[in-house]
Write a structure and sequence with these properties.
250 residues; transferase; globular; hexosyltransferase activity; WecG_TagA_CpsF; N-acetyl-mannosamine transferase; 12 helices; glycosyltransferase; six-stranded parallel β-sheet
Length: 250
């Protein structure tokens, strides 16, 4: 059964990495990383919902969501944070000598990554602010991806832009490889932004670390999402009960 209308990936990170490696030279597919913010956005954004439904993999990015998913028997064995997955896939790219296209991010981040992963060929395209509302800029971004074949495509333009763009790439059917819609992951990987220590992550408090690190950008969003997620969870619980009652009827 779907939870929050999402058909979550039900393997662990090791299984996911193995699956992605098997698809890097096939027609383009992409990974979306569900967190509290995405669950809230999906409530009223049908275009974003469609992009989610089209994704090859919908992973639980959030340790905060994991207790809820367990409560609702979603069958998800573990959270797979997008930042952690990106590190693992970049390690694979280094071992295999892949080409990696980055959409978004900045030149200084790419310079650090090029030094850290010398066996990787990096391609970089950074569309201008507000590009998603400009058809010409969207087309330029799509053409760059399609004309520069890569095994891995890392989307660093934020949600829901990166998911919408990934769906466009998949729909056009001209690109290959696997896209990771992992937002700020490269900022963490390059050291431009410090990720929470592992003990903080294991306590499911990475959200608090991020608020303290970037209060102006994140405090308002986290407050809004925190208030919105509770009624969504309560509605899901009601739906689960109705489903169980219908299933148990003789």
């Amino acid at each position: 059964m779907k939870v929050f209308g999402i058909d979550f990936y039900k393997g662990d990170q090791r299984d996911l990495i193995r699956a992605i490696k098997g698809e890097v030279n096939k027609p383009f597919g992409y990974v979306v990383t569900a967190n509290v913010n995405h669950v809230v956005l999906l409530e009223n954004d049908s275009v974003f919902r469609n992009a989610y439904d089209t994704a090859a993999y919908r992973i639980c990015d959030s340790r905060v969501l994991m207790p809820v998913l367990r409560k609702f028997d979603a069958g998800v064995p573990e959270a797979i944070p997008g930042s952690t997955l990106t590190v693992s896939m970049m390690d694979e790219a280094q071992r295999e000598g892949w080409t990696v296209t980055v959409v978004g991010s900045t030149t200084d981040v790419l310079q650090v990554l090029a030094q850290r992963y010398p066996a990787v060929t990096f391609l970089h395209y950074n569309p201008p602010m507000g590009f998603i509302d400009n058809p010409a800029e969207v087309e330029a971004t799509l053409q760059f991806v399609e004309q520069h074949r890569a095994q891995l495509l890392i989307m660093s333009v934020g949600s829901p832009r990166q998911e919408l763009l990934s769906k466009m790439i998949a729909d056009r059917g001209r690109a290959h490889g696997v896209g990771l819609c992992t937002g700020a992951a490269l900022n963490f990987l390059s050291g431009k932004v410090q990720r929470a220590p592992m003990w903080v992550q294991k306590l499911s408090l990475e959200w608090l670390h991020r608020i303290l690190s970037e209060p102006r950008r994140l405090a308002g969003r986290y407050w809004h999402d925190g208030r919105r997620i509770l009624p969504i969870i309560l509605r899901q619980r009601s739906q689960q009960r109705q489903y169980s009652q219908q299933r148990d009827k003789p």
